[in-house]
Design a protein that fits this description.
The structure holds two protein chains of two kinds. In chain A, 73% of the residues lie in helices and 0% in strands. Chain A is an all-alpha fold. The two termini of chain A are 20 Å apart. Chain B has two domains: 250 residues, P-loop containing nucleotide triphosphate hydrolases (Rossmann fold), CATH 3.40.50.300; 73 residues, no CATH class. In chain B, helix 8 links the parallel strand 7 and strand 8. In chain B, helix 4 crosses helix 5, helix 4 packs parallel to helix 7 and helix 5 crosses helix 7. Chain B starts with a strand and ends in a 12-residue tail after the last helix. The chains are: A mainly alpha, B alpha/beta. Chains A and B meet through helix 1, helix 8 and helix 9 of A and helix 2, helix 4 and helix 5 of B.
Chain lengths: 301, 334
């Protein structure tokens, strides 16, 4: 993105310190429009809060996440000393939810982020160069589309064996094809627009055109799509952990917690659904925020 | 060389899945320094293709260009990619038909102009912005300082086309190619943009090639005119001569279908029947013959070389008989 402070300086220099109008940069415009949308603001606040809690968990959690007490097993919500109750091994639920957020958020965001970087590059390449490059990239991604995302993630993690790294790798692999496909279709459309010809007529070479013009027009669309995938990724990650393919006990992770508390659903139903509630809230917030972002990033509105 | 643009025997062929399209055949063009040439013709006559060939903007693997193109003393067809990029925007710049589509929607207009200047003059961003501001003033954009930071969609059509001209002229090109720059604008803005182009051309001493399908526009801006039909130039010459005394039946037909000032309200405009030819085969005979009121059998024979005088050229086998057959008065403004 072009930098605004620079341009403001140029204007200042040319104008002897008086700026006719103060121009806003692209991201400032997006931010302004986002801040007018109450739903986005609420969702963003919740997410920021969750991330802060996850980062600060060791400092603010009342107990240790793996320290349990057999006598305090499955206490109800609101018990003295354990505001959100305890799990089936007597560990404090509040502490475990805080620590679990670290894993769950990491597993939700990182694979999508990596897939975003790889998928966008592949899609840009395929879309811009066309021909056999396009065929090679897009037909390969089509192979991945033959399997449902959940099944593919399970199959890859299953083949690689359980573990945090493996499940994240599996999730990354699952999300590259859809992102590449979106990037490719947008690139193909953008590439044929007049301004690409105009840029070429102004002396830009292919690399500049891809890097500046195509990339910046494709980025927005793919970015919004990727943010909507974060919630899907969180749910898939939770699913993998639930099946025992993700992180291993006693690590706290929302999906895994949901799994282990499953047996206690008749004893302490409210405590048992807490991890599920967290997953639900987080992915809902990501979805609504990405929706708000789509509106805000569309300059023409 | 006196001519800033010299095109000899230019043929452009596109390879498509349905076979070759002979978009432009045997085009010769000369443009002297500081002059304006109008390429006149209807849609699909090869005007824009000729224009884009001058900058080699066609996709290379699907296009075959033969002949020779010299711009500002350089052989365009022999240039490598690097030299070609250096040439484009610097020596030869282009104004596009639809200014909304020709600007990148995600960048500010001022930054897009600055980018071109930075690319060709290797200057700083600030210097580029200064030049952008100067250019925006040149093209009479109101409150140019403010418009530098506008996005393309925040401008009106006329203003956008002015900004497009500012962008094209930012590096002081010696040749400006204008591809129907006024077609997307409404009539009142059209004349403003035309006058602006003429003014800037004089100021910067540029040569200009102006593509249009509007006879009135061509008369307004051009010194020389080349009428294209079916991928060939059918008539060429100084604008006043061609417009007062058209030789080729197609030019006569175009003028017969044009409204002009002070025309008798009772005059009927005469349309040319039929449609332009498909260019899926190389047309060696007169492409206009199927629509020509003067056509005889000999018109379907391969065309002889064009009739040439000092200043004028026309490509019609029956030229002596049909020249001067224009049924009504000249359309030139008196």
């Amino acid at each position: 993105m072009q930098t605004t402070p620079k341009s403001a300086n140029a204007l200042k220099a040319a104008d002897g310190g008086k700026i006719a109008t103060k121009s806003r940069g692209y991201w400032a415009t997006v931010w302004l429009s986002l801040s007018r949308d109450p739903i986005s603001i609420v969702c963003a606040s919740i997410l920021v809060l969750l991330v802060l809690i996850a980062i600060l968990a060791p400092a603010i959690a009342p107990y240790s996440p793996s320290q349990g007490a057999m006598v305090d097993r499955l206490l109800p919500i609101g018990s003295p000393g354990h505001p959100l109750g305890t799990d089936e091994l007597g560990r404090d639920m509040l502490t475990r939810l805080m620590y679990g957020g670290r894993m769950s958020l990491l597993m939700g965001i990182l694979p999508v982020f990596v897939a975003f970087a790889i998928g966008t590059s592949l899609g840009l390449m395929a879309g811009f160069f066309g021909g056999w490059v396009n065929t090679l990239v897009m037909r390969t991604t089509d192979v991945f589309f033959a399997f449902p995302a959940v099944l593919l993630a399970i199959a890859i993690s299953g083949a690689l064996g359980p573990g945090l790294g493996n499940s994240m790798f599996a999730l990354t692999l699952v999300f590259i094809p859809p992102i590449a496909r979106v990037a490719e279709s947008v690139t193909t459309r953008v590439r044929l627009l007049d301004f690409v010809d105009a840029a070429r007529a102004s002396g830009a070479n292919s690399l500049t055109i891809v890097r500046v013009h195509v990339f910046n027009n494709v980025m927005g669309v793919v970015f919004i799509y990727a943010t909507s995938l974060v919630s899907v990724c969180m749910i898939l990650a939770a699913g993998l952990s639930f099946l025992g393919l993700g992180v291993k006990p006693p690590t706290a992770e929302w999906g895994l917690m949901l799994n282990t508390l499953r047996q206690s659903i008749y004893v302490q139903p409210w405590v048992s659904v807490l991890p599920g509630f967290m997953i639900f809230t987080t992915s809902l917030c990501f979805n609504l925020l990405s929706d708000g972002l789509r509106g805000a990033m569309d300059l023409k509105r | 060389m006196d001519n800033i643009v010299e095109v000899r025997d230019l043929c452009v062929t596109f390879k498509t899945s349905e076979g070759s399209v002979y978009a432009v055949s045997n085009v010769n063009l000369d443009l002297a320094e500081g002059k304006t040439l109008a390429l006149l013709g209807e849609s699909g006559s090869g005007k824009s293709v000729t224009m884009k060939s001058l900058m080699r903007l066609h996709p290379p693997h699907k296009t075959q260009i033969t002949g020779s193109i010299h711009v500002a003393g350089r052989d365009v067809l022999a240039l490598g990619n690097r030299e070609l990029s250096d040439l484009r925007g610097k020596d030869i710049a282009m104004v596009f038909q639809e200014p909304m589509l020709a600007f990148d929607p995600v960048f500010k207009v001022g930054d897009q102009i600055a980018e071109v200047v930075m690319r060709h003059e290797g200057c700083s961003y600030e210097a580029g912005r200064d030049r952008a501001l100067e250019m925006m003033e040149c093209v009479h954009i109101p409150s140019p300082r403010k418009r530098l930071d506008a996005y393309p969609h925040e401008m009106s059509g006329g203003m956008r086309q002015r900004a497009m001209i500012a962008l094209a002229l930012a590096c002081r090109p010696t040749v400006l190619l204008a591809d129907e720059p006024t077609t997307a604008l409404d009539a009142t803005v059209q004349i403003q943009v035309l006058l602006l182009l003429r003014e800037l051309q004089r100021e910067f001493g540029m040569s200009m090639i102006f593509v249009t399908h509007d006879v009135g526009v061509a008369i307004e801006v051009a010194d020389e005119i080349a009428v294209m039909y079916g991928g060939r130039i059918v008539e060429q010459g100084p604008v006043d001569q061609v417009m007062t005394d058209p030789w080729h039946p197609y030019t006569q037909g175009l003028l017969g279908a044009t409204v002009y000032p002070n025309m008798d309200p009772a005059t009927r405009l005469v349309s040319i029947p039929g449609a332009p030819p498909q260019l899926y085969r190389q047309i060696t005979e007169c492409a206009f013959a199927p629509r020509c009121p003067h056509a005889t059998d000999e018109c379907h024979q391969p065309l002889p070389p064009p009739t040439q005088t000092d200043q004028r050229m026309a490509r019609c086998i029956r030229l002596p008989e049909v020249a001067g057959a224009l049924p009504r008065a000249s359309v030139l403004p008196q």
